[in-house]
Amino acid sequence: MSWRNRMRFGKKSRDEDLEVVPVIGKESEQEDLLERGVPAETWQDVKPKSTVLGAALMLASMFFRDSAMGRRAISLTVAVLVLLLLEIGAIVYYSSVQKEYMTALQEKNIDAFYHGLWMVGAVIIFISPIIALHEYTSGMLKMTWRASLTRRFAGLYLAAPGYCEGNPFYRLTLTGEIDNPDQRICQDVHEFVGIAVHLAQDIVRTVLNIASFAAILYSISPAACYGVLVYSIVGTIVATKGFGPWLGFYQLQRVKQEAGLRYDLIRVRENAESVAFFEGGEAEWSKFNTLFSGLLQTVYKSVLVTSGFGMFNRSFHWATFAVAPLLVGPAYLRGEVQFGVISQASMAFNIILGAMTLIMDKLESLTDVGVRVRRLEDLELSLRKCRNEMQMSSAAGLAGVQCIASAEPGPSDTAMLRFCKVTLRTPPRAGILQQTLCHDLSFELVSNQSLLIVGESGIGKSSLLRAAAGLWTDGRGTLQLCKRQHVFFMPQKPYMFLGSLRDQLLYPHVEESFVSNSDLEKALRQVNLGHLLEQHSLSESKEWASLLSLGQQQRINFARVLLRSDVRMALIDEGTSACDPANEAVLYELLQQRLCSYVSIGHRPALQRFHSHALWLHKPSLESAASACSPSASDPTEIEFMPMAEFQAKNPALAYRE
């Protein structure tokens, strides 16, 4: 008896054949969630982009609200501020000492002059350990902040316990919403924290300097005080309006292009053998040269803008060397002030000018941190969006394929895998319409049964496995599978963990120490990889992805299953495609002895003897196509679930013969 279901690809003739759903994360996200029935209390609010300052404050609030590091963050921040106050106070006192000994020098008062020099030494002795302690606490603040943000973003991205559920890294890669999340988590966080801490201290120092030295300068010369204010405001406006937008634009372009360039080189390294077989070095060089030329063009334009800004900035500051003496000098010549006052006024003028022109002096740093803030904000919004979509898909009664854990494997009639009226859609991707892959697909696989999914390449076999593994959930219906910890997924190209041979065999539970070396060695010999033990120790770390052939990597995958006592079911996506027939037979015989059930995708007829049932994806006969009610059904795809013997009887050309 067969259960027949229709599955259409790329058809737009009927709404049910090709459905487009609103993409989470747009301005209408909240309305879309509510329309779909998601309770507001179950999802995180994804706010639209804020200003750069608002986004920076959001990143700062994450640090101070961190349950693990919040108190330490506050303590370090207070310590930095106290040390900064002591440093500013010492500088203010130093200005008065400088005035006294310069006046003594002008009056030729030897005792007062040397007393002033001794006081300068005392100030230096006092301030030196304060500066050192200030640098230390500032460095610790940056390290702690970076650790907090990096762990937060990496935890959300990699779905660490306590941060998020599901596979956000897979969804972001699939949808392509943001570029280079790895660079954002590591480099952008590092750059942002470093610049942000320095800028925050500069802002505090600016406020304190203005408050401390403005009174001194005003008491000496009100004209000088007002003059530095006007001069700095004019310079800041010219710099921010004339150079700021261009610096920010080219900085953003440069960061994106450098990330793309590194990604291109990483792809060549990861696929070095394939590139070498194709002799593709020249093509890769041509692509690299194109990307690098684009980067150089951006750098060149940035250099032009930076050169203009540097010329303006230096000229602006050099012009101030004569301003303070010009404003205070006439008063000294009239005998109204002492000679040391000129030195004190010049120092106060330059400190206030530096404080008032902070934005102009730090314009390049501000544009850089603005770029980093935007990239981190985009990452945060995308991760929140993934979390909302996962919460939406798991909420009861909502649109989405519901993955339900079945009972523990036991009796022969226990359902290991059950599709109940599953309609599956492709995940949402930027610029690509979602397609409905199957309608109301239903079948059941019970304990001690095995299933082979067959059909021509590209017809949608792997999509069903992705749904069974919980990776693709867009659609509707119920998918029942034994508990996740009892399921092992085996892709065509296994993932080789960066670690020792022991880590490869135990992945993803690499920290499990109760598995003995003898068990590991036994598993390797069972899958005919015992010769690896003659060449490598279990603790030896190698680049296993390049050292082992694809067939050997696939056998490592089967060894992982043999070592997992909790695995009851395997989902195998052409997991023996690179193995020879003899090794393939050995691997599946081991599976039959070890697992209650398994589902495979494969093209070799020899696999049929290791499976009790078949799920056949195929083009329909002309009679069934003509009888279909849809006028567009001239080219649908049918799915049939049946015992393997029935499949072989219906398809003698595809049946296995010894």
From TrEMBL:
**Domain ABC transmembrane type-1 stretches:** 78-368
Against InterPro entries, the record matches this protein to:
AAA+_ATPase, ABC1_TM_dom, ABC1_TM_sf, ABC_transporter-like_ATP-bd, ABC_transporter-like_CS, ABC_transporter_sub-D, P-loop_NTPase
What's in the keyword line of the UniProt record?
ATP-binding, Membrane, Nucleotide-binding, Transmembrane, Transmembrane helix, Transport
Where exactly are the transmembrane stretches of this chain?
73-93, 113-133
Any one cellular-component term (Gene Ontology): membrane
Q: Where is each ABC transporter domain found?
A: 417-644
Q: Which SMART domains match?
A: AAA
Please verify whether the record's keywords include Membrane.
Answer: yes
Q: Which GO terms describe its molecular function?
A: ABC-type transporter activity; ATP binding; ATP hydrolysis activity
User: Taxonomically, which superkingdom?
Assistant: Eukaryota
Q: Which family does it belong to?
A: Belongs to the ABC transporter superfamily. ABCD family. Peroxisomal fatty acyl CoA transporter (TC 3.A.1.203) subfamily.
Q: What is this protein's name?
A: ATP-binding cassette sub-family D member 4
Q: Which organism is it from?
A: Symbiodinium necroappetens
